[in-house]
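Side project, low priority. Logging it here so it doesn't get lost.
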Amino acid sequence: MRLNGKSQVKDKELLALADRHPFDVFVTSDKNLPYQQHFRVITLRVLVLDTLSTRPDYLVPLIIKFSGLLESLVPSSVTLINDEGEVQPFNLGSGK
């Protein structure tokens, strides 16, 4: 990802930037992110869209489903949401 026209920012740096600024939730479709990053060092809540498509017309119904969920997410947590809108916490200790 490019930030302000500068060189690419790695996931770890992007999460750290989001954690230091007034963001409550980081939403991503990167299904590998929970396996690649250490989330205990940030307070940011991470929501991973575990979906077949990331097309906006496909995601809008899912976004409506999870919008009410955002405030209930625990700091430093990773939560997965699938195509059916099923929510599952990602266990940071076991990688599941």
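Brief comment: The two ends are 26 Å apart (CA to CA).
Revisit when time allows.
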